[in-house]
Amino acid sequence: MPVSKARLANASASATAKKKRRPPARNTAGPSPREALKRSPAPPFDVVESKIHVPSLRSGTVSRTALVNRLRATAEPIVILTAPAGYGKTTVLAQWAARDARPFAWVSVDDRDNDPIVLLRHVALALHGIEPLAPSVLDTLAAPGSSIWTSAVPRLGSALAEFDQGVVLVLDDTHLLRSREGLDAVLTIAQHGSEGSLLVLAGRASPKVPVAALRGRGQLSEIGVDRLSLSPNEAQLLLRATSADLSLATVAGLVERCEGWPAALYLAALALREEHDPAQDIEAAIEFSGDDRHIADYLRSEYLAQLRPGALRFLRRTSVLDRMCGSLCDAVLDDEGSARELEKIERSNLFLVPLDHQREWHRYHHLFRDLLQRELAEGEPQLVPILHRRAADWYELHDDPESALEHWLAAGDLDRVAAIVTEIALPTYYGGRIASVERWLSHFDREEVLERYPGVALQGGWVHAIGGRAAEAQRWLDAAERGTFKGTLLDGCTTLWPWIAVLRAALCRDGVYQMLADAESGLAGLPPDSLLRPTALLLLGSAHMLLGEDDRADAFLRSAAAEADRLGARDTRMVAISQRSLLASARDEPAAGQTLALEALELVDHAHLEQYVTSAVALAVAARAALRHGRWDQARSLLTDAERVRPLLGQALFPWLTVQAQLELARAYLALGDPRAHTIAQEIRDVLEGYPHLGVLADQADELETDLDAMPEHGNAASAGLTGAELRLLPLLSTHLSFREIGEELFVSRNTIKTQAISVYRKLGVSSRSDAIDRAALLGLVDTTRRAS
Fold first, then answer.
1. Inter-axis angle of helices 384-397 and 401-411, to 10 degrees?
2. N or C terminus: which one in the chain shows less Cβ crowding within 10 Å?
3. How far apart are CA 22 and CA 760, in angstroms?
4. What whole-number distance in Å separates Cα of residue 388 and Cα of residue 392?
């Protein structure tokens, strides 16, 4: 979801207003962020805590005083550091954090952060370590719904706006973020920071943010290779740490050849140190190349070759890990003493980056790890899948199935990947991490693979169905039915049949009677605490509703709502309550229908279900209820919300629910005199052509079309539900006649005209006669070019 200019401008204006009201920042000489994090309640979601700590500075690091001072004095709210690997971006930022009075919230980005909710959770925990966030903010991130923009982003932005001090929020390695949505969300949140707050984005490539727009508004400070490059004096200090005693002239030659690249300078110094001949220093510096291939060749032949076999073996084999600790390395190597080996590597300054202050977790410098992985693939290719399997076993033992899944994928073991996906796909999806689940499922998206893993095919069928992709849901369901399942589902089922039956009932491909039979069969086979049980009850109630058996339908729907409440299936509960509201209205019980509609709407709002396709029926039912009670503006607002998800309804997610939602939307638009009612009526016909056996819905569609045929045409736009008398009044309102004079023209009293005018104002959503004329003209209900003078 790209950040629009309007969104950035609005966020900036809001943040500026808050800054003007804020008292001066207090002196916060309290506990460190890590200590504060320890004292705060544990967040209601899992994160990689080692990713949110500022890296420790190692001894011998060259001080980049001038650059750090420039960063400390930055006035622009956003800073971007962009340079290839090995330019010392992380080191510079760590030095800045050590010298700045402001607290730093740090996130070391990795591939998982391409799921926006994962990135926001780490950002929240980093901020939580500075000033504890309200439980409501953390709870929103635990179950954000399908859109971060309706819940997580606004709440996290509001929380940041309440901080008592400026904060520097750092995202390191942003080049790993291929998804733009997460960065856009962080950018929006950061706009609400206190005065003096900064957002810092560091990576190998320019992040996917609107750089040109930010630059044009003077909101961006950019640090690139030119400023991160080492000067000859700085390079000489760096090279002395390698015990390479090189003259300033030699160093200047190296700086020129390497263009100030610290990593290449470091490697070049190691090469020169091994064959040190002062007479040839300058010539060697001139001939040295900073090309990655040359650096790799050098490391292979001149540096890695000098290491003892055990150390080299450790480096190569642990390169399969994106982060390391002693216990994990022991498991991967099937050995002991890895923690001591990591300490030795760190002391040798060998491209090992500590990820926490305890130095328990580390990672290799990315460039160095790439080389080690190439060495491993060339030297011991048969060992690579074994190492990944050992890593996966370790992560499973330590209750981290997602990390295990990634290593099983790298090991090529789809059996284990399938077992984990079958267990965690739906809970992860319902937790808001849609991108992660869809990435896992993509590895199985071939017919022969889906049939081999019917448990995964079944999970994918549900995910595609919930996402409004009916054709894909049907394809994955068919594969699940053809396959042979041997395992256990997350609810304890050892057979797929109950799940398949419930999904078949939801898709309703063979008509309402088969839907009823499938729902009954599925319900009979589900354990009492299965998360699918409320859905099965909902489908039973809906099937009886389609057959016109309203009393039985209401009983099942009541049970579905109660079970959904007990098991936390909020989406299912919302639909069940919406269906009960429809039944109450059909029984001519408007008060009960209104109560149930408001209850369903409250779930949409509080459970953050606005972007779920199923929310369309709740929004439509609530809009109809609002219209019955004369709340026109509220009805229009609800219909606007429903329009955001209506396009997905046309894909026939669940055809019966699609038609029910479309019927309610069309009736609401009909009450408003909005021509969109005709468009939706055609969409209903399109669905019914593909699913002709949906019980009473076909008759209801016929009744809708009869009502639409009787709908008068007024101009070329909506009549906004105006009565005939009110439509006759509109042209006269556009004149300068008084209410008394208009009454005389229409042979009614002044009070009658006044009452009709007030009704027109309310239905058009305005408060004055002039505004009513303008709105009516916009809708094509009056011709303002013919106003009386």
1. 170
2. C
3. 44
4. 6
Q: How far apart, in whole angstroms, are the C-alpha atoms of residue 463 and residue 472?
A: 10
Q: Tokens 């700085």 belong to which residue?
A: 234
DSSP-assigned beta bridge partners for residue 324: 362
DSSP string, 240-270: HTTT----HHHHHHHHHHHTT-HHHHHHHHH
How far is it, in rounded angstroms, from Cα 789 to Cα 787?
6
- Distance, C-alpha 277 to centroid of its chain: 57
Nearest to 627 by CA among 660, 672, 683, 564: 672
Of 665, 776, 641, 646, the residue nearest 717 (C-alpha): 776
Q: Which segments of 40-88 does DSSP mark as H helices, in order?
A: 65-72
Q: What 8-state DSSP symbol labels residue 432?
A: T
* Angle between the N-to-C axes of helices 655-672 and 615-628, in degrees from 0 to 180, rounded to the nearest 10: 30
pLDDT digits (tens, 9 = 90+) for 1-20: 334 434 334 444 444 444 44
What is the spatial order of strands in the sheet that 78-82 belongs to? 104-108, 168-172, 198-203, 78-82, 220-223
Which H helix or E strand runs over 353?
strand 352-354
Asked if 436 and 458 count as a contact pair (C-beta separation under 8 A), the reply is no
User: What is residue 171's predicted lDDT score, i.e. its pLDDT?
Assistant: 96
Calculate the alpha carbon distances from 223 to 74, 220, 232, 261, 754 in Å: 11, 10, 19, 14, 66
| Largest Cα–Cα separation, the chain | 113
Q: Tell me whether residue 166 is exposed, middle or buried, using C-beta atoms within 10 angstroms of its C-beta: 0 to 12, 13 to 18, 19 or more.
A: middle
Res 535 pLDDT > 80: yes
Judged on CB neighbours under 10 Å (0-12, 13-18, 19+), 105 is buried
Q: What is the pLDDT of residue 242?
A: 66
Q: Nearest CA to 579 among 654, 675, 673?
A: 654
Contact between residue 338 and residue 321 where contact means Cβ atoms under 8 Å apart: no
CA distances from 756 to 237, 540, 760 (A): 85, 47, 6
With beta carbons less than 8 A apart as the criterion, state whether 54 and 106 touch.
Answer: yes
On whether the pTM is more than 0.85, the answer is no
